[in-house]
Design goal:
two-stranded antiparallel ribbon
Amino acid sequence: MHIVAAGGERKVKENEFPPGWDAERVRRVLAHYESQSEEEAVAEDEAAFETKGQTVMEVPSELVPMIRELIANHKAA
């Protein structure tokens, strides 16, 4: 939850998750990455570069929200 200030009042608003995600899924993902050894994390990262049908590239940070939206629209289509 986070606090939202509106008109001088403080309101508690539930976090919104992307479709298919909920608090339990977020906890599972966090637990996965927090329990990884450095070697396991490196192996997972390296495997991502070898995944067929996907490309890994650097992009300016300010473009990331637009790229995420394009990917979401592509998956929905």
